[in-house]
Amino acid sequence: MKGVGQASAELAGRYFAVFVNRLAYTLQSHKPGANGKHYYYRPKQDRGLSLQTIREHLNGELTIGLYALSPKTQRSKWVVIDADYENALDDLLKLQWELRQDGVEPALEKSRRGGHLWIFADKSLLAKHCRIYIYNLARRLKVPVKGGPGLAEGIEVFPRQDQLGPDEFGNAIRGPFGIHRATGRRYWFYGADYQLEAQLDYLERLRKITETEMSRFIDGLEMPEEYRPKPRVELPPCDPTRPQFRILDHVRPTSKRGGNYWARCPSCADHGRDRSGDNLAISMSDSRKYKCWAGCTKEMIRAALGHPIRVRRLVEHGISAHDAQ
After folding, report:
1. Residue 256 gets which letter from DSSP?
2. Distance between CA 260 and CA 277 in Å, rounded?
């Protein structure tokens, strides 16, 4: 790759054409947090991603994260399968081989602990269709999906959502060719020399999926039921006089960030994970709201704490509901 300060505006423009779906972006912190992690944050200035910022990313001066999904169109120009667990590369190679049988040319990028499998579109595709395709493929190949039934580890698919609201951002992924601040390394795509221009040449030559092809791939398919987004549950106002399960009675926060407490996930800990002790986010304003960012469900978390979620029967309505006690 060219040395620091050498990436040209022309190369930045080519990078933009391949990878940028929307002008919102994130930055990876240069300094680690108390737990050693380099977190991503949105820039304070409400500026769109510029060619100059991309040049700084390519030159190693900063590291950007790219959003997969545009809320204006609900479309993305690429899909990424992210895998960073034990034997993750084997699963990515399996997916890559199967995708090639459909005539798709995915690009495999190295990562810190596994890899990212990128699939590019001729023109932006509906995120919902992309996700139906990949989730059904993973199911057919028995590739684990993070957050699936009982699974805290597995692949993650970007875009992570079918659609976004006007003011939502979704999830960002580290922009290729940027230096990972935790390792000080760049991670390249297999299949081309480890130089920026050669890498972009390779990616631009890859055959891109058309919308007609994607429609054919998903004909007759739906999102597998086990991976469908759960309906959002609006909790009633908290009543301090009523006995309720309070997760902060059972876990000790290690930090505060972004309106949340962060703590070790009990379910992750039971499986020997979450060494940094911050997979579990707990709302500071309402501790009934908590989420494991490694994919453990509330049922798994509560079971690990020895306080499983009870199911009560609402006989008069003939339905069942989770008891929050």
Report:
1. E
2. 14
Query: Of 314, 272, 267, which Cα lies nearest the Cα of 86?
Result: 272
pLDDT, tens digit (0-9, with 9 covering 90-100), for 239-275: 666 667 888 889 998 888 767 898 989 988 887 777 7
Rounded-to-integer distance, Cα 50 and Cα 13, Å: 10
Gap between the Cα atoms of 66 and 25, Å rounded: 5
CA distance 242 to 292: 26
Place of tokens 């579109």: 121
Contact 232, 222 (CB under 8 A): no
Q: How far apart are CA 121 and CA 100, in angstroms?
A: 14
Cα–Cα–Cα angle for 176, 51, 61, nearest 5°? 60
Taking CA 42 as the corner, what is the angle to CA 36 and CA 47, rounded to the nearest 5 degrees? 145
Residues 74 and 162: beta-carbon distance below 8 Å: yes
Q: Alpha carbon of 191 to those of 18, 164, 198: distances in Å?
A: 17, 34, 10
pTM assigned to the model: 0.76
Residue with tokens 């004909």: 219
What number of other Cβ atoms are within 10 A of residue 214's Cβ? 22
Element (H, E) at 314: strand 310-314
> Helices 9-19 and 51-58 meet at what angle, rounded to 10?
100
100-156 pLDDT, tens digit each: 999 999 999 999 889 999 999 999 999 999 999 999 999 999 999 987 877 778 999
Using pLDDT thresholds of 50, 70 and 90, give the confidence band for residue 323. very low
